[in-house]
TrEMBL record:
TM region(s), chain numbering: none
Pfam families registered for this protein in UniProt: Glyco_hydro_1
Keyword terms: Glycosidase, Hydrolase
GO-annotated cellular components: cytosol
Any one Gene Ontology BP term: carbohydrate catabolic process
InterPro entries in the record: GH (IPR017853), GH_1_N_CS (IPR033132), Glyco_hydro_1 (IPR001360)
Protein name: Glycoside hydrolase family 1 protein
Length: 478
């Protein structure tokens, strides 16, 4: 079993979950800066104003802003050849539509990217990872407004030009398909203008969600076209939060229901961004959900011109749907029924490594463009032993099982070119705002109450991943 030569091994992060320094060097508040901490049982709260009596974990993140050199050196020590990061839009344009970009913000990413290059690490940069300047929420209700397209184009044009010699691989929107879901739409599209209360209480209509997505599709299409025209060396990708879904039984009604779910959740956004057109099933999907898209002339051309060069997705779990009684999962951000053949993490995510092989084959058969798994991982409670060591065998098992599954997919003929583990260093959870939901190979001494020294520590999994990378996935998998 072998991974192709030059296969990218690495880790994935998002600016808002690790940088901290939320109001430093001219940065504007971003959507996630208005989210308090939460937990498995208690949803994060969204507040319109930043309240001194509440804790907003993204404000400090893990202080990557000041510690990136140490962190990237640790990634290099593990053998990373790729680092997926995102640029914080509000570090570059604090209000989203400022007349000039913020030079201090641009200079920060120069330093980070130079540091990656110095270690021989290829950056993979997400342009929008669950955030936008909060000012655009206040004034425009996020992607509900068409104006966002122009602001996004300007932001992208600015960073493309600035980092043209430092970045080759770009992704437009993280998990764009979250915009098809009620709760997901809040982080993905920022349509939370004036909302105050538990994030789980947000309700959006299909009309709002698909309209916001349409604006994102047009924006993505335009910036992909711009990249192809001006920077032929750039490779532009999409990013889908892949929620693999199985039918609960072989009742054809369950199979059809599952097909519909797979289309709505995974294929809809993928089809638009890879094929450059709305899929044929969209007409019925829209009709049955009362969606009437407002479009302008040229929108469909923008989408058609903006086909991506490679396909990326996150993969954490699989779900089940059925027309009969199906026991529902109780985890945070889980969306379906219980699968009796699978075990779940402490947060209720059903671990399914074989499903990764299955998903990879489905994606490859459908699109035939290079594929990367840009998020995969396991949130878990870690215990620091008295001597400071962290024995995270559960994470090692998860990692090995998923690497083996990718190896099988490569054997199946899938054009897989890279793998970036989610949260190679502990960071703030997007779903719950917790620190204790840890993904890292590197432990960060920061806790949910905001305390901690921010000291970094190698876990056992650090060495396990190092071994896998050193042998290009040939060793360290037993
Ligand atoms: C994905 C997001 C990431 C990340 C991950 C884990 O959906 O793209 O930003 O956070 O999920 O989720 P969580 O942090 O909620 O455990």
């Amino acid at each position: 079993m072998g991974f192709p030569e030059g296969f990218y091994w690495g880790g994935a992060t998002a600016a808002n979950q690790l940088e901290g320094a939320w109001d430093v060097d001219g940065r504007g508040a971003s959507v996630d800066d208005h989210f308090t901490g939460g937990s498995y049982e208690r949803p994060r709260e969204i507040t319109v104003d930043i309240r001194p009596d509440l804790l907003y974990p993204n404000h400090d993140g893990i202080d990557f802003y000041h510690r990136y050199e140490e962190d990237i050196a640790l990634f290099a020590e593990m053998g990373f050849s790729m680092f997926r990061m995102s640029i914080s839009w509000s570090r570059i344009f604090p209000n989203g539509d400022d007349p000039e970009p913020n030079e201090a913000g641009l200079a920060f990413y120069d330093r980070v990217l130079d540091c990656c290059r110095a270690h021989g690490i290829e950056p993979l940069v997400t342009l929008s990872h669950y955030e936008m300047p909060y000012s655009l929420v206040e004034r425009y209700n996020g992607w509900a407004s068409r104006e966002l397209i122009g602001f996004f184009e300007r932001y992208c044009a600015t960073v493309f030009e600035r980092y043209r010699d430092k970045v080759t691989y770009w992704l437009t929107f993280n998990e764009i398909n979250c915009g098809t879901m009620d709760i997901g739409a809040m982080m993905e599209t920022g349509i939370i203008q004036g909302f105050e209360g538990p994030a789980s209480a947000i309700r959006t209509t299909p009309q709002q969600r698909y309209q916001a997505l349409h604006h994102q599709f047009v924006a993505s299409g335009r910036v992909v076209r711009l990249a192809h025209e001006r920077y032929p060396q750039f490779k532009m990708g999409n990013m889908v939060g892949f929620l693999l879904t199985y039918p609960a039984t072989c009742d054809p009604a369950d199979v059809l229901l599952c097909q519909g779910e797979m289309r709505k959740t995974n294929w809809f956004c993928s089809d638009v961004q890879v094929r450059g057109a709305y899929p044929s099933y969209a007409t019925r999907l829209f009709r049955e959900n009362g969606v009437e898209l407002a479009m302008e002339e040229g929108d469909l051309t923008d989408i058609a011109d903006g086909k991506v060069d490679f396909y990326t997705f996150s993969y954490y779990m699989s779900n089940v749907v059925g027309t009969h009684d199906v026991e529902q999962t109780a985890g945070n951000m889980t969306f379906g029924g219980v699968n009796p053949y699978l075990e779940s993490t402490a947060w209720g995510w059903q671990v399914d490594s074989a499903g990764l092989r299955y998903a990879l084959n489905e994606i490859w058969d459908r699109y035939q463009i290079p594929v990367m798994v840009v998020e995969n991982g396991m949130g878990a409670y870690d215990t620091v032993e008295e001597d400071g060591s962290i024995h995270d065998q559960y994470r090692i098992d998860y990692l090995k099982a998923h690497v083996r599954a990718m190896g099988e997919a490569v054997e199946d003929g899938v054009g897989l070119i890279g793998y970036t583990w989610w949260g190679p260093i502990d960071l703030v959870s997007a779903g719950t705002g917790e620190m204790r939901k840890r993904y890292g190979f590197i432990y960060v001494d920061k806790h949910d109450d905001g305390s901690g020294t921010y000291e970094r520590r190698r876990k056992d999994s650090f060495y396990a991943y190092q071994k896998i990378i050193a042998s290009n996935g040939a060793e360290g998998l037993d």
